[in-house]
Design brief:
The complex is a heterodimer of chains A (about 110) and B (about 120).
Chain A (H helix, E strand, L loop, with lengths): L2 E5 L2 E5 L4 E8 L3 E9 L6 E6 L5 E4 L2 E5 L3 E6 L8 E9 L8 E2 L3 E6 L1
Chain B lengths: L4 E3 L2 E4 L5 E6 L6 E7 L5 E8 L14 E5 L5 E5 L8 E8 L9 E2 L3 E5 L1
Parallel strand pairs in B: 2-10
Antiparallel strand pairs in B: 1-3, 3-7, 4-5, 4-8, 6-7, 8-9, 8-10
Classes of the chains: A mainly beta (about 110), B mainly beta (about 120).
């Protein structure tokens, strides 16, 4: 069974204080790992797709990295508008099922 | 362009009633997904449609849940004889195609409350 575990559950940072969010996963074969951002009362907003170990992607203050067992979302010099819940999800190889398996998310608060 | 839309945004129903939730995917997206997000839990995959292929129903929690899709457009998720544990946000997503990994674009969700 595919599993995704995110840590920490919640994180409070000062504006400008860099940190990393962790996503550990177990999957029979990884087709892709996805990061989403979710604001209260809204649907998840797509951030990144990572396909293979060693891959990195960046967008503004965010950088996502991938190993064979985990992914990190690094946040550099965050601003209050980066406050949100960050979700990690995996898509498995084979079987024809495209449904994503999600973690419970990391609730990030950036204080001014 | 327009994103994924869902209606209603909120639905309150009495235990035992049937409900229908609607999803309009992004135009041209052939793949459509339904997920459920219960309080404090991760998103749970429910069902997936790809073109005219038989849907993947592997995530549906019980036979009270069903979904339909008309071609490559609108989808409805129906929950019969609702129970309190069905209270959740139901999210729809669409993707340009299946067999990815292709990113899935989510709608705003329908918040269902069963009293």
């Amino acid at each position: 069974e595919d599993q995704v575990t995110q840590s920490p559950e919640a994180l409070r940072l000062q504006e400008g204080e860099s940190s990393s969010l962790n996503c550990s996963y177990t999957v029979s074969g990884l087709r892709g790992l996805f990061w989403y951002r979710q604001d209260p009362g809204k649907g998840p907003e797509f951030l990144f797709t990572l396909y293979s170990a060693g891959e990195e992607k960046e967008k503004e203050r965010l950088k996502a990295t991938l190993t064979k067992k985990e992914s990190f979302l690094h946040i550099t010099a965050p601003k209050p508008e980066d406050s949100a819940t960050y979700l990690c999800a995996v898509q498995a190889q084979g079987g024809g099922a495209d449904g994503l398996t999600f973690g419970k998310g990391t609730h990030l608060i950036i204080q001014p | 362009g327009a994103g994924v839309s869902q209606s209603p945004s909120n639905k309150v129903t009495e235990k035992g009633k049937d409900v229908e939730l609607r999803c309009d995917p992004i135009s041209g997206h052939t793949a459509l997904y339904w997920y459920r997000q219960r309080l404090g839990q991760g998103l749970e995959f429910l069902i997936y449609f790809q073109g005219n292929s038989a849907p993947d129903k592997s995530g549906l929690p019980s036979d009270r849940f069903s979904a339909e899709r008309t071609g490559e457009s609108v989808s409805t998720l129906t929950i019969q004889r609702t129970q309190q544990e069905d209270s959740a946000v139901y999210l729809c997503a669409s993707s340009p195609r299946s067999g990815g990994p292709y990113e899935q674009y989510f709608g705003p969700g329908t918040r269902l409350t069963v009293t």
